[in-house]
């Protein structure tokens, strides 16, 4: 480890910030993620690192690349998991792949009890995302682009330029694997990277840094709006109270309450619903469900699904929904007992998600040996972990 190297310095700072625990590193085999994986092993120690290789199955070599990444990580003394995901075939293949990837990472974090997952986004990714958001017609919150930290996801390399990554890879002679989709001009991000950004850089050689400053500034402004919107950003929403707020706060409260990206059209329609005169019940369809106003209460309706397979407990164990007052000794805390409610809060698991979370208990003493969104308890056999 070289304390003066920007990659080593950035990753070491994040490991210090997160503290002791089990680190997952999402690794595709590209230069960014390989540099991140190598630096995390150096900073946290190989026994505390799990390489997470997600195989999207979109190219002929994707499975072989994921296995190669896992093999390299194991050769460094770290653990590795390969997960194949199914990418929905929809208008934006890139967005579908991203959704499938983060769903898999979230599931692995729950199953393995990861304290955090490092993802290898860099300043180049941030600059590309800002331009993509501008092309889409985003608002100020969208200009904030990629956050350095959200829940258990952290991006230690987000402030580093490509030169720092390439220098690190060369200095440590790291193997890298090229994803052919990074040259596929059917993808908007590839066209932005190879066509639009080079033209913009001819006007400003420091364009990437400028776009990253714009994202940072937008995030600062958004934080102020979020603080004002937060008291109104939980369903059910009091329409009368929210309607008295400035429109920027109203729309941001709606976006925060929904918890996912909504287009300007959806936000405007929901805002009109909030400000409309009270009149029975009116519903609006949004991605993933609907928003319904009943008199002065605005609620979110999520359709029920039957896609989740029933869980089968190991012999001598049983599944149940967690209850107030439940405690466990999670692996990430090395056996220290805490209330599950506090663990969920620390992991930033939304209340509506944690409400249906399940735990696995021993039938002999009813001790919790695994909890959804938290992972296994301390000193639990690996074959009891529901992957």
Topology:
Blueprint: H1 6-18, E1 23-26, H2 31-44, E2 49-55, H3 62-75, E3 79-84, H4 93-112, E4 116-118, H5 123-136, H6 140-143, E5 149-150, E6 153-154, H7 162-171, H8 188-203, H9 207-229, E7 237-238, H10 239-243, H11 247-258, H12 264-275, E8 281-286, E9 289-294, E10 297-301, E11 317-321, E12 327-328, E13 338-339, H13 340-346, H14 351-354, E14 358-362, E15 368-371, E16 375-376
Helix pairs in contact: 1-2, 2-7, 5-8, 5-9, 9-11, 11-12
Structure, explained:
It is a single chain. The chain has 387 residues and is of the alpha/beta class. 43% of the residues lie in helices and 16% in strands. It is built from 14 helices and 16 strands. It has helices at residues 6-18, 31-44, 62-75, 93-112, 123-136, 140-143, 162-171, 188-203, 207-229, 239-243, 247-258, 264-275, 340-346, 351-354; strands at residues 23-26, 49-55, 79-84, 116-118, 149-150, 153-154, 237-238, 281-286, 289-294, 297-301, 317-321, 327-328, 338-339, 358-362, 368-371, 375-376. The strands form four sheets. Strands 3-2-1-4-6-5 form a six-stranded mixed sheet, sandwiched between helices. Strands 7-10-9-8 form a four-stranded antiparallel sheet. It has a four-stranded antiparallel sheet with strand order 11-14-15-16. Helix 2 (31-44) links the parallel strand 1 (23-26) and strand 2 (49-55). Helix 2 packs across helix 7 (162-171), helix 5 (123-136) packs across helix 8 and helix 9 (207-229) packs across helix 11 (247-258). The protein is globular and about 65 Å long. Mean pLDDT is 88; it is low at 304-310.
């Amino acid at each position: 480890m070289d304390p003066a190297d920007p990659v080593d310095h950035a990753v070491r700072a994040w490991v210090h910030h997160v503290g002791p625990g089990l680190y997952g590193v999402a690794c595709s085999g590209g230069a960014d993620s390989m540099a991140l994986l190598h630096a995390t092993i150096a900073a946290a120690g190989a026994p505390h690192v799990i390489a997470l290789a997600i195989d999207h199955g979109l190219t002929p070599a994707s499975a072989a690349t994921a296995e190669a990444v896992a093999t390299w990580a194991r050769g460094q003394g770290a653990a590795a998991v390969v997960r194949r995901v199914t990418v929905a075939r929809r208008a934006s293949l890139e967005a579908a792949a991203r959704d499938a990837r983060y769903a898999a990472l979230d599931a692995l974090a729950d199953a393995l009890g990861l304290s955090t997952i490092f993802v290898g986004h860099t300043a180049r990714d941030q600059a590309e995302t800002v331009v993509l958001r501008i092309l889409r017609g985003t608002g100020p919150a969208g200009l904030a682009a990629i956050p350095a930290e959200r829940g258990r996801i952290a991006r230690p390399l987000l402030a580093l330029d490509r030169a720092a990554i390439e220098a690190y890879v060369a200095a440590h002679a790291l193997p890298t694997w090229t994803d052919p989709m990074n040259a596929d001009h059917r993808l908007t991000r590839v066209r932005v990277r190879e066509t639009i950004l080079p033209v913009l850089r001819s006007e400003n050689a420091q364009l990437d840094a400028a776009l990253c400053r714009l994202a940072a500034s937008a995030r600062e402004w958004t934080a102020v709006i979020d603080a004002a919107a937060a008291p109104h950003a939980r369903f059910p929403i009091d329409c009368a109270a929210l309607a008295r707020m400035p429109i920027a706060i109203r729309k941001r409260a709606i976006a925060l309450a929904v918890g996912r990206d909504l287009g300007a059209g959806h936000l405007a329609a929901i805002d009109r619903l909030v400000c409309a005169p009270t009149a029975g019940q009116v519903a609006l369809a949004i991605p993933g469900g609907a928003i319904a106003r009943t008199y002065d209460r605005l609620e979110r309706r999520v359709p029920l699904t039957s896609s989740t397979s029933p869980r089968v407990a190991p012999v001598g164990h049983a599944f149940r929904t967690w209850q107030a007052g439940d405690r466990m000794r999670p692996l990430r805390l090395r056996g220290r007992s805490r209330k599950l409610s506090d663990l969920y809060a620390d992991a930033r698991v939304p209340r509506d998600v944690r409400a249906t979370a399940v735990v696995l208990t021993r039938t002999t003493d009813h001790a919790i040996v695994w909890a959804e969104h938290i992972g296994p308890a301390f000193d639990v056999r690996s074959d009891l972990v529901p992957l």
